[in-house]
Amino acid sequence: MAEIKFYSEKTRKFYRLVKTETWPYLEISGIRMHRADTLDPKTDAISKIMSLGKIYGIVLDCCTGLGYTAILAARNKSVKKVITIEKDENVILIARQNPYSRELFENEKIELIIGDAFLETQKFKDGYFNFIIHDPPRISIAPELYSLEFYRQLFRILKRNGKILH
Total structural domains in the chain? Predict the structure, then answer.
């Protein structure tokens, strides 16, 4: 895997895909978008999916990143569909070049929405999702994804007895 790094004039951010012993992590302007200190990104993504228990139905992944949690959720036979939302087109550009993100674009059960999760979640009908994975960047980067208004939106679109991972 070739090293991927670039600066975007549009966002005024520096993007870098950083190799690990398993799956690489994304860094944006020096801020890691994945856990990579005590856990590697692969183990972290697996643990997030496992913490939900037996997953099924329709799953929302609020912040796609490199797509690891969306990919692992979609691999589950009981999951019909995974909808994943990513705001930053540069992140998707990197994911397209990351061999570990390939399934994000090839798995027919995954629907990728390029947009703001805060706005996109407002478009779903009540009780649409069985599970929601909400793994946003730092609060200083996206404070709206930590707001009471956003959590109310997530609970609105979550099915009765559904689960949210945050």
Answer: 1
